[in-house]
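Following up on my earlier message about nickel (II) ion. Here are the inputs again, as you asked, copied directly from the submission form:
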Amino acid sequence: MSKRKIVIEPDPILRKKSETLEKVDDELRGLLDDMLETMYSAPGIGLAAVQVGILKRLIVIDISKDKDKKNPLFLINPEIISKSKTSSIYEEGCLSLPGHYAEIERPAECHIKYIDYIGNKKEIKAKGLLSTCIQHEVDHLNGVLFIDHLSKLKKDMILKKLVKHKKDLNKIIL
Ligand code: NI
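Thanks, got it. Here's what our run produced:
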């Protein structure tokens, strides 16, 4: 397992749609392991492959709060089958938008199907934090970021700060 570099907004790759995977093999599992390590060390509770620069429909999630009881979830080609009419609000952040958080309203529950780490077809009915996390990550696979759910004003404010932050990162004084 090795840690990968996380792509930070603004980067055009984050706006691209990820591709469906054809097969689950050891190479793919190696990538999933790398994604999990990258997510744990960040630290974060969810990561999509595009965030390490790979446009494939892959997500890793672990919402367990206890560090000693890891409970990773690997989602290959996840598809949201249905969403509830009721909604919930969480203050969301994103590893690709460091330091920025905003309250985002999403359907409280979602029903998804996906392929697991072994290659088996699975389904989950998610609610609460897991539901929000899955929807945030599936958004990534479609080139959508959580700030896209905000008003234009709020979104532009965050984007401006991110551009400034990126410029500052490259600044050197000699
Ligand atoms: Ni994110």
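One observation from looking it over: The two ends are 37 Å apart (CA to CA). Hope that helps, and feel free to reply on this thread.
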